[in-house]
Every structure is written in structure tokens, then in C-alpha cells.
Amino acid sequence: MLKVGVLGAGHLGKIHLRLLNQSEKYELIGFYDADIINGKKVAAEFGYTYFDNINDLIDAVDVVDIVTPTLSHYECAKKAMEKARHVFIEKPITNTLEEAENLLMLEHKYKVKGQVGHVERFNPAFTAVRESINQPMFIETHRLAEFNPRGTDVPVVLDLMIHDIDAILSVVKSKVVGIKASGVSVLSQSPDIANARLEFENGCVANLTASRISLKNMRKSRFFQKDAYISVDFLEKKVEVVRMKDAPAIAGDFDMILQNAEGVKKQIYFENPSITENNAILDELESFAESILEDSIPMVTLEQGTEALKVALQIIAAFENKSVLN
């Protein structure tokens, strides 16, 4: 078992503490929170060991799980890496691209592993169809959430849309060459609603919409490719896969056949991938443990987390510039 310590005991930090405490791959040593009152309260309520000094906790563990506000991600990860500790960092990886790139250098220098908490990669609906998404040419995502003051210290792009940015980058193996975007601030000082159009070198186009002032929650992505339409509902954990193949010479009574203007006939059929219920946060934490124990590449590397942040920041910049990269 790997000894692990958690930095940050807010809403998500407490979830991480609970899951790490029950994991068979980790031994939870304790946690640190800059708010001493909150730290002692969490310790008293749940029985976890509270460290009032961040360095003492880092010294006591093999893995540091960083669930602090984004502004402190870099300094926390830097402290841990300089002591040769592996780091799991909640998304976004850091506050700035320069900080993320510095962590990449530290990861290499101290020969440690790092993983970014892009949890949707472990969503059972996404994992059920991940291998079926092959060279999509148009992608559309909607990530809508009811208003919650937590997280409004950053633009909705870094709060919500970055989940979809990472998922898209994981399936589109091509460089982003153009970005157009718009964002509107309604209740917060930073944009609460955003739309972005990503254009890739291979011709793929992705249209992303995110809102944190919606009347209902929605987390859906649709992937269109040459042979299929794939819909992923991250919230309801449902998928829909519609494929086309050459129509049989003699169609059955219930076969769905389409014919284009050139007379080519295609048969539409549906697939129902099996979805296995899971706890995505526990899975991402345990997958990181496996990468350390097996000396393999983490599921969501610091490089991938950096690339997602880079695109997110370019989208935010495009709010003012209207378009970038072209």
C-alpha cells in the first residue's frame, strides 16, 4: 500500500479523504488544511489525522493528493515533488501555463509521477464507448450546471468546460489550429456562460458550451464520425451508438434502410455498450496508485493536463480577441 496524504479538506477534499480511507491501494496518513479551524473540525468529525504543518505531512507519505484551490496547486505540487513525492492534482492542473510547464520539468527532474484529476475520463459512460470513438470529425458538448457559488472564482471555462476539453483532446489526435469563443458574465466577475469552437489540423471541429447558471444540470457530448454517431450522457451514465453499414441485398422487415441521391443504400443499426457502475473518483485515484506500483504511464498525465489548460486559457483569451491561433 502507498502512504498518501491529502492537501485541502474542502467539499471535494473530504470526498477524497473518505475514498482514500476505504481504498485497498492506499494507507491514508492524514491531511493538511490551511484553515486550522476547518482542519480540526474535519479531524474531529471523521477521525482523520490532521497535520498543521504541510511539510510534516509531505515527509510522512509517498503520494500527495492536492485538492486545494487552483491558485495553490503549483506551490503544493512543487513542495511535494522537491521531496520526491508523487502527486495527484485536481483539475485544472495549475492557475497558469507557466506553472504547469514548470511542474513538467520538476516531474522529470525528481523522477516522480503525476496525474491530473480529469475525472470524466473515468466516467463509465465514456469508458464504455472510448474505443469506439475513432477519428470524429464533429463534436458537440453541453455542460450546464445550476448556480453554485463554489468555483465562481475562476471562469466557467476552467470550472466546467475544461472537463470536455480534456475528453475531446483524448480522442482527437490532432493539433488545435483555430479557436473562436465568446463568454458572458451574469452573476460572477468572470464569465458564467461560454461557447467555443475548436478547429483541429485534421479537419475536426468541436463546439463546446458551458454554463453555471442553468435551470437544470446537463453533461452531454455527441461525436460524429464516418461510420457512427455516438452520444455520451456523463450525468445519467448513458450512451447511444448509432452505426451504418452497407445494406443487405434483401432487407428484413425490421431493417432500417436509408438511400442517398446516388442510390447507395445503408443500413442503420444500434449498439448497446455495457456500462459498469463505478465511483469515478475512486477509480482515478486507484489508477494512479497502479501506475506508481507498476511503473506505468498515468491515465491522465501532467502533459495532458497542461494541454487541456493551454486550450482553456486560449479560449478565455479568445473572449477578447474573438479568434486565436489562425
Task: Describe what you observe in this structure.
The chain has 326 residues and is α/β, with parallel strands linked by helices. The protein has two domains: 2-112, Rossmann fold (3-Layer(aba) Sandwich); 121-275 and 310-324, Dihydrodipicolinate Reductase, domain 2, CATH 3.30.360. The protein has nine helices and 16 strands. The protein has a ten-stranded mixed beta sheet. It has a six-stranded parallel beta sheet with strand order 3-2-1-4-5-6, sandwiched between helices. Helix 7 (156-171) packs across helix 9. The mean pLDDT is 92.
Please report the distance between the alpha carbons of the first and last residues: 49 Å
Instruction: Spell the H/E element sequence.
Output: EHEHEHEHEHEHEHEEEEEEEEHHE
Which stretches are poorly predicted, pLDDT < 50 over at least 5 residues? none
Number of helices: 9
- In what order do the strands lie side by side in the largest sheet? 14-15-13-12-11-7-10-9-8-16
CATH class of the largest domain: Alpha Beta
Silhouette: globular
The proportion of residues forming helix, as a percent range, comes to: 25-40%
What's the number of structural domains? 2
Q: Remind me, CATH topology of the largest domain? A: Dihydrodipicolinate Reductase, domain 2
Count the E strands. 16
